[in-house]
Amino acid sequence: MPYTPTAEIVADAVAAGRGVVAFDVIGLEHAEAVVSGAEWADRPVLLQISQNAVAFRGRRLRPLAAACRELAAAAKVRVGLHLDHVEDEELTRQAADAGFGSLMVDASRAPYAENVARTRALVDWAHEHGLWVEAELGGTDGPAHVAGARTDPAAAAEFVAATGIDGLAVAVAVGTARLDIDLVAALHEAAPVPLVLHGSSGVTDDELRRALGAGIVKVNVGTALDIACTAAVRELLLDACVVDPRRYLAPAMVDMAAEVERYLAVIS
User: Fold this and answer.
1) Which domains does the chain have, with CATH numbers?
2) Choosing from 24, 84, 152, 255, which is the catalytic residue?
3) Distance CA 154, CA 180 (A)
4) Is-catalytic flag, 84?
5) For residues 189 and 37, what is the distance between their CA atoms, to the nearest angstrom?
6) pLDDT tens across 110-169, in order?
7) Among 32, 55, 92, 161, which lies 20 to 30 A Cα-Cα from 47?
8) Which of 181-219 are b and which e, b meaning 16 or more Cβ less than 10 Å from the residue's Cβ?
9) How far apart are CA 86 and CA 94, in angstroms?
10) Is the CB of residue 101 less than 8 Å from the CB of residue 6?
11) Are the beta carbons of 256 and 233 closer than 8 angstroms?
């Protein structure tokens, strides 16, 4: 199936009243597991490469992005490619040529006015290159995923209008495993763009469903896949005779794919 732009996957989810799941990709095994899980669930999915993942791979974006595009083209379901949590403007400007359909401009650590200015400038560039753009607004200042951060609905509406973004990552967590559903609903009412939930690992399925019903559209998942992968690898490596990486990567990929299928059944 041809690679699908993020904007199309998100728009279809909004129209159908469903969510979209973006899974963090560290290497080819992660990407293959995500696509397998999406095929098992028969649901569209986003492969999400973060700036940290690019740094881990020697700051080379294109090799992993190209592999993800090839997987998307061969998949039986729609697969999009998203560049996540990008603070480096140089990396941001590689997104279009590397084949991404969307990116997250992350200036949330900067003061509010600087966040707006930096985001606005990159949104203009990204839209010229056909990219769907997400940004983040936490509390008065600071990232949405910091403990205790709360996104104010009025500030969210102002931020969206000032930046022209297509999706907004918001701070709605209460502790480590609960979400403020009333706040999600208020943000959905105030901000005329799809809302994004970062840091969903550990949140119960019921809580995720309630968040989707209140207005969350895109849900990011990373740690849950890493836990599944590491548990499988750890178990196999208890056998001191195992030296072939395929012996432990194969079950790790199956377990990650199963986790992808489970999340997609809940969210999309």
Assistant:
1) 6-267 (3.20.20.70)
2) 84
3) 16
4) yes
5) 33
6) 999 999 999 999 999 999 999 999 999 976 555 555 556 789 999 999 999 999 999 999
7) 161
8) bebbbbbbebbebbbbbbbbbebeeebbebbbebbbbbb
9) 11
10) yes
11) no
